[in-house]
Design brief:
The chain is mostly beta strands. It is 4% helix and 42% strand. Bound molecules: ligand MTE and molybdenum atom.
């Protein structure tokens, strides 16, 4: 309990879950990410507790906590706010049970909906509010813990022009597994913060005390030598990352013939440099400028010099100075092994 508002969804009716157990659709591999916008069928799906089934006509969103005017909205009420469409990288940070393991569950999609900022303004947040707690209607069991909702939080100051209450992905209504009828979308933050089947937003002074914010998705901070300290940091902003799309792993390329190495790079702070390593050492790739929270294409011309096995890798550096580590982190450098003949 914080600010006198319960984080329990007990007052809300329990929704049907089908399946009523963890559900996922595996991501496509990086070399399949050839398009700037990932086709909907290739978007990975991650549901910790199962898939909540909620009709638009049954959906409601409560806004409470540190607001002057608590609200309850139904789906039709969203039509009263200006529509917003934006594109962003959509990335899962990997399993909360193995937070340092890279999974490359990433896509780029277009979201459609209304701005959280506009909706919150109607509830008139009080000056002391600092965090937005968001609750999904899904319930069930994860890692042996029984949960009556999926609850996350984000700093209120992050709710600028691009955090959405989304009801569309790539121009089509969300499906149940993607969070229908309405989900939160926090561009630049890992996917876990974009709460699906959204049913309650609570403004508060403190972070929320929930298993998905305190126990999981709360990384040990590393010291300068990469060792874990007692301090913890929420898994919010996406750290710099890049993947090589082409050549694909196992490709055969010709010695002496120019070949384009290209891929995508992204980071919450925007990427300012990508370095590509080949058999000839490391070079800086050409890179698209930062645009919102979209991924940025990078490319480098490479003329293989020697026959045999070769490893390519890319390393992104963000505008805040952070760069991809070589190993031991979810955003560790991605490598492609291929052959030169
Ligand atoms: N309510 C709810 N929201 C959720 C989840 C969940 O299990 N329940 N999974 C999160 C995680 S870990 C990710 S990566 C994204 C995945 O979104 P997608 O399945 O639409 O790709 O949803 C997030 N939102
Ligand atoms: Mo995730």
């Amino acid at each position: 309990m914080t600010d006198g508002v319960s984080t329990s969804g007990a007052a809300d009716e329990a929704v049907a879950m089908s399946p009523a157990h963890p559900f996922k659709r595996d991501p496509v591999p990086p070399h399949a990410l050839r398009e700037r916008f990932t086709p909907r069928a290739d978007v990975f799906v991650l549901c910790h507790l199962g898939v909540a089934r909620i009709e638009r006509s049954e959906w409601g969103l409560a806004i409470d906590g540190l607001v002057e005017r608590p609200l309850r909205l139904c789906f039709e009420d969203l039509a009263g706010f200006p529509r917003c469409e934006l594109s962003s990288v959509h990335q899962c940070c990997g399993s909360p049970l193995a937070p340092r393991e890279p999974t490359r569950r990433v896509t780029q999609v277009r979201w459609g909906g209304v701005r959280l900022e506009d909706v919150l303004a109607r509830a008139r947040p009080l000056p002391e509010a600092r965090f937005v707690w968001s609750r999904g209607a899904d319930h069930g069991e994860f890692a042996g813990v029984s949960l009556d909702g999926f609850v996350k939080d984000l700093p209120l100051e992050r709710v600028g022009r691009d955090v959405l209450l989304a009801d569309e992905l790539n121009g089509e209504a969300l499906s149940a597994e993607l969070g229908a009828p309405v989900r939160l979308v926090v561009p630049g933050f890992y996917g876990t913060n974009s709460v699906k089947w959204l049913r309650r937003l609570t403004l508060a002074r403190e972070r929320v005390d929930s298993p998905f914010t305190r126990r999981w998705y709360n990384d040990p901070v590393l010291d300068a030598r990469g060792r874990e300290t007692a301090e913890r940091a929420p898994v919010w902003a996406i750290a710099p990352e890049s993947v090589i799309v082409s050549p694909a792993p196992g490709a055969l390329v010709e010695r002496g013939r120019a070949c384009e190495i290209w891929g995508w790079a992204w980071a919450d702070a925007g990427v300012c440099q990508v370095e590509v390593r080949t058999d000839a050492g490391a070079r800086t790739a050409l890179l698209e400028p930062v645009r919102g929270h979209e991924w940025q294409r990078f490319a480098l011309e490479w003329v293989p010099e020697q026959s045999g096995a070769v490893r390519l890798s890319s390393r992104a550096r963000a505008r805040d100075g952070a760069a991809q580590p070589d190993a031991g982190a979810r955003n560790a450098r991605y490598e492609v092994a291929l052959s030169v003949r």
